[in-house]
Amino acid sequence: MISKEERKLVLRLIVFLFASIALMLTDHNSDYLKTVRAQLLGGVYPIQYLVNWPVKAGQSLSKNLNSHFQLLGENANLRDDNLRLQVKLQKFEDIKNENQRLRRLLGASEKLGERVEVAEVLAVNINQSRRKILINKGLSDGVFTHQPVIDAQGVIGQVIEVGIFSSIVMLITDPEHELPVQVVRTGLRTVAKGMGTVNRLSLLYLSNTELNTSIKVGDLIVTSGAGQKFPKGYLVATVIQVNPDIGKPYAQGQAQPRSALERNWEVLLVWQLEPSTVINDEFKTINSQ
Amino acid sequence: MNVEQHHSTWVIILSFFISFILAIMPLPDWALSWRPDWVALVLIYWCIALPQRVGIATGWFVGIILDVLNDTLLGQHALAFSLIGYISVKIYRKMRLFPRWQQAIVVFALIASAKLLGVLIHSLFGSPEMNQPLFYPALTSLLLWPWLFIILRDMRRTYRVS
Fold first, then answer.
1. Comparing C-alpha atoms, which of A280, A213, A276, A274 is closest to residue A244?
2. Residue A216 CA to chain centroid, in angstroms?
3. N or C: which end of chain B has fewer CB within 10 A?
4. Is A38 helix (H, G, I), strand (E, B) or coil?
5. Can you list the alpha helix ranges (DSSP code H) found in chain A?
């Protein structure tokens, strides 16, 4: 005999189960829920910030406790580094300008410039089976989905979820992440796929015959610009292993990411500038000169 | 809703808030797969203590928040938690009579089956699932249940949540 109370309970369960299933199907198959997710991500930001806060406080405390001499030494080192980089940059500016001029002569249109901005990584665990991080920049800072994220050493990943004040970045080591890449030495194109483990990428679609000439251990890999999401030429990884696999159409390759993926506290967001804006900027500088 | 009830709602919300914090707190790598399912534990407690107020709807709502925090499919935790809510509300009378260790075993079963459901949903929607040990979180939840029960019960009594 089912009581009235119990029937009400079962009815309610069915309603909520259907609601969940409908949500999952929409979330999986379409982008309708993108804005809802963005709002919700903004809503839970206080929780994430609260978790992040003690870790950051501890870090700044240990920074403050550094001895004076240590800081002086660090400062001197940084100044040296800065000087060296500035010298390099002078040459780079020159080459960049020349490159742009040549491209314009050839009539080649390509996205030329990039703007970068620093974002802080929040000390929050997203999902232990995945490789994702949370950063403190969101819609209000102009972050968009599929935006490339890099650090000083190389590519880190791309933004997959944008909230109002924060966004979630999928690292290139996530098993769902695939990145079109190219070997610097030979120009061989391949795809670097995450394996879900720390610091390993697997290289897809390497044919067995190419192993002799086109790729070897120690080669550098950069983004190839295919797929339009990542700008061309950013460092990704170093090849650490290539094995021919006779039984299969493709050989197996593994690479180690250059950037400190899971140990970063600061990352860089990249905005690609359209060619027209770059030229406008140039005109402005010429006019001001 | 009178003032006292309003006051007590805040206690429930606060306990869930703390459980969210514990659920996304950074841990060393070896401890990650042992992290107990804090939110489910708190949910089960309130379902047993106040089945008229906390149940399927609360479970669903809390699950949605956890989905956003964990960046899983929207509705994945909501589905599992509304089921947990339903079962705990249905057996709350028995659970109250059980000795603490027997309660803990039921909690283990609930959380383990919720995790299993999560894996099932994952494989249904085609995203690869890492081979992480499933029952570790349920096991740590089992060990923590008696202590959590005492803490939440004391909280409920001091603030007279009913």
1. A213
2. 26
3. N
4. helix
5. 4-29, 34-43, 45-65, 68-106, 275-288
| Chain-chain contact of B89 with A50 (C-beta, under 8 angstroms) | no
Residue with tokens 């029937």: A7
Alpha-carbon gap, residue B118 to B99, rounded angstroms: 29
B96 CA to chain A: closest CA distance, Å? 19
* B105/A171 Cα distance (integer angstroms): 38
* Contact flag B55-A50 (C-beta cutoff 8 Å): no
Closest to A149 measured CA to CA, from A223, A208, A71: A223
Domain ranges of chain B: 3-25+34-158
Note down pLDDT in tens along chain B; length 162 residues: 555 666 778 899 999 999 999 999 888 878 888 899 999 999 999 999 999 999 999 999 999 999 999 888 899 999 999 999 999 999 999 999 999 999 999 999 999 999 889 888 888 886 655 556 778 889 999 999 999 999 999 999 988 887
Name the residue facing A20 among B79, B86, B128 (closest C-beta).
B79
> Hey, what are A135's tokens?
């950063």
**From CA B67, how far away is CA B82, in angstroms rounded?**
13
Helix (H) or strand (E) holding A189: strand A189-194
How does DSSP classify residue A234?
-
Question: Are A233 and A114 within 8 A, CB to CB?
Answer: no
Q: What is the pLDDT of residues A203-233, one digit of tens each?
A: 888 877 777 778 888 899 999 888 878 888 8
Specify the higher pLDDT residue, A79 or A209: A79
Question: Which residues on chain A are in Cβ contact (under 8 Å) with B133?
Answer: none
* DSSP for residue A107: T
Interface test mutation site (partner A, options B25, B68, B117, max chain A beta carbons within 10 A): B68
* Both structure tokens of A288: 């001001």
ipTM of the complex: 0.88
> What's chain A's length in residues?
289
With CB atoms and an 8 Å threshold, state whether B130 touches A196.
yes
